[in-house]
Structure formats: structure tokens, C-alpha cells
Amino acid sequence: MNYSKVAIRYAKALFELSQDKKIEELVKEDMLMIEELLKEVPQFFLSISNPIIKSSVKRNIVKEVLETKVNNLTFKFLNLLIDNKREEYFEDIIRNYFEIYRKSKGIKKTIITSTRSLDPKTRQTIIDFIKNHFDTKVELEEQVNEDLIGGIILTVEDQQYDMSILGKLNKIEKEFKHISI
Fold it and tell me: What angle do CA 108, 111, 114 make, to 5 degrees?
């Protein structure tokens, strides 16, 4: 069984359980907090995914770090992953949980890349455009890339709209490469 199938199955099971208990928002918040923890403290993930460390030690680590910070379902789910020796899939499970969550709520993940942070008015204009154009709710993530020179790159799910100066220069460069003189 490949990683994605395992991660999808666990993420789907967690989402469906959280939906049944009507706490999918709480579990989503837990997943966001845990995702941030994994980024900020990589040793946490390394310790719970290490096959040499005993399951009882891993459960103690999870208990010490997360028991009071997450809801009971999330805590039990983490212990289930440890019991079933699926800790190594946790990052993929989180990612898949968010995808399942967004799909069920009709939310499109959107990434906007620009040369600097957007002001609130521009940010809202972009959100409104995406809401109207795609008839959906929007989860907007901003990224800054000064190499773009100017303009933006808008990624909505798997569609990308490159309206940057760098993108236009690259397009012109490709066109010139195909011209024979």
C-alpha cells in the first residue's frame, strides 16, 4: 500500500468521525495547530515517527505535548496512529484532512504570490473575484516572491494564472528561442 492511500484513508476516517460528532471545525483547528507544531519543532515529528522509539514512549510524548491542547477525538486519533504504527504518515494525513475538509465545505484553496504583502483592500478584491468567478468560498494563502518583479501569480486549486512581469518575460524569451533568423 502506498503512502497516499494510507494517508487518505486515515484522513477520511478522521473527517467522517469528526463530522458525525459535529466537531469537524475543532478537529480542523487541531490539525492546523499540529501542522504548525511540526513546522516549528521538527524534533516532535522525528521522535514520534522514529521506528526505534517504543510506542509507549511516543504515546507519552504526545500526551505531554498535546493532550490538553487538542480535543479528545484528535488525541485518540494520534494514539491510534501510534498503535497502528502509522506515525510516519501524519503529515500526509493532515494535508489530506484539509483537502477533504475544504471539498466538503465548498472551499477552494487559493495561493496568491506577489512581490510584497497585499493591502487589505487588494486582498478582499481578489477574494471577491475568486468567489464570484469560481462560485466558491475561498481559503487564501499569501506568498511573497520579489523575483516576480511585479504583478501576481494566482493559483486556485490546480489552475494557475501567471500575471507577473517575470512570467511575461519568460514567455517572451521562449518565443524568441523558437524564432530562426
Answer: 150
Locate 85 and state its grid cell.
504504527
Task: Quote the pTM value.
Answer: 0.81
Length of the chain: 181
Q: Give how far Cα 69 sits from Cα of 22, 41, 75, Å.
A: 19, 16, 9
b/e map 127-145, b = 16+ CB within 10 Å: beebeeeeebebebeeeee
Closest to 156 (Cα-Cα) out of 120, 97, 121, 112: 112
Provide the grid cell at 176: 524568441
Mean pLDDT, the chain, rounded, equals 92
pLDDT level of residue 181 (50, 70, 90 thresholds) = low
Q: Could you give the domains of the chain? A: 3-103 (1.10.520.20), 107-177 (no CATH)
pLDDT single digits (tens) 87-127: 999 999 999 999 999 999 999 999 999 999 999 999 999 89
Cell triple for 5: 492511500
User: What are the grid coordinates assigned to 1, written together?
Assistant: 500500500
**pLDDT-based confidence at residue 3 (cuts at 50, 70, 90):** low
Please report, as a single letter, which amino acid is at residue 108. Answer: K
> CA-to-CA distance for 23 and 7, rounded, in angstroms?
20
Q: 19: Cβ–Cβ under 8 A, 6 or more apart, which residues?
A: 104
How far apart CA 25 and CA 38 sit, in angstroms, is 20
